[in-house]
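Subject: mismatched residue count in predicted assembly?

I count 496 residues in my input, but I want to confirm that the predicted structure covers every chain. Input:
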Amino acid sequence: MNKTSAGTFYGVGVGPGDPELLTLKALRIIQQCDLVTYLRSEHGHSMARDIASAAVSAATHADQKEYAIILPMCETREAVNTVYDEAARVIADHLDQAQDVVFLCQGDPFFFGSFAYLYDRLNDRYSIEIVPGVTSINASSALSGKPLSLLAENLAVISGRRSDEDILHTLSHFDNVAIMKPGRRRSELLQLIDQAGRTQDACYLEYVGQKNQKIIYDISVLDALPGPYFSLFLINRSRDYTPSSKKP
Amino acid sequence: MNKTSAGTFYGVGVGPGDPELLTLKALRIIQQCDLVTYLRSEHGHSMARDIASAAVSAATHADQKEYAIILPMCETREAVNTVYDEAARVIADHLDQAQDVVFLCQGDPFFFGSFAYLYDRLNDRYSIEIVPGVTSINASSALSGKPLSLLAENLAVISGRRSDEDILHTLSHFDNVAIMKPGRRRSELLQLIDQAGRTQDACYLEYVGQKNQKIIYDISVLDALPGPYFSLFLINRSRDYTPSSKKP
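Triage response: the counts match. Full output below for your records.
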């Protein structure tokens, strides 16, 4: 690593939940850095830190430090900006002292994550390296036995927060669709999937790669209630690809 | 691993090219299996085998064997089916002898890959486990400094083989678009990206994660000629996210 002037800032994907889905590169960089940073809730919980726990414990850097960036519950744009401004200042201080800093990102740094806020604030002045990770949609596809895309098929990944019109349009134009973070909109999304005639193609997953992971293959049994933040719908062209071990 | 009856068939993503982007789980499974299989060209080349080379060399299984599935150059549907039928028979023979078999997949097994052909042929009879991997689009995003998606943005992944109409429609409806394997259609795709007014948003990547990897940030300088198979266009909502180390 470049220690001659400023340190390097690493944005490292730690995968969706299973610590074994860390890459060898993520493991090496986490172990070598001077400072390990990550987002943490006000309640003291950090998913990214949990996933990388064994990697951090096995640090090869003798004097490794940690820095939790605490995200307030009430996320107004302004409050979030203040948090990232301050985090960027702390990280820059370390880089200026020729220290290498790693920011742990659940999944992949540039796939629906928060890393871009720090990247945006530090990229002009510092050397940044990004280590891609396994995403929640790849893990969900592997777990459910539903291919994300084959041959000349297409795939759309859309936030559950998009308009009804956008979601309906996507469901009717794409072979395969992932709807990210349905959360509070789960009930409306169930209706939209039904309206697009794709209830049969859909499955629903929560907390993939974590101890409490759950797959619902028949979404018609899902309650029309809000779900947790870490959930998604996968809608695939109809094929019977349910893993044999999971067949009833 | 289940050795009591039949063995387990593992579809394992080995990432897009850099051997350090293997996951810890992929490494462990490759090292433990009785048989390692992968696709190989008639010329004797296997990208997946190359990426996993160090993992195979470090096998913990004392008597590990290899089996290359040779794909003919002239890929008629029928010829390809014959190859996969025969491969499934060989794999089934090993599973029946209570051996565990791993199929190495470049990138992720269910993301534009060939694993589904074997999955389809073996899933009814055998226990199959899929290990997701880092995809070429995540690696390309990390390398180019272009986020695949932020907050409520959407992302489409579309094959370069789709119709002009499909590609134009996708370019105009999605914030971020990856066009996979432009290959022979590179010249038409350059025109379509231009027609959609998104030349400024696009970058072009070849052989990501391999020694000969290449990024073209200004696609207007790209020759209107066919390109290699392992290439892609990334089209992102305009932001200046070019990594500082790569700025001119």
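The longest helix of chain B spans residues 77-96. Marking this ticket as 'not a bug'.
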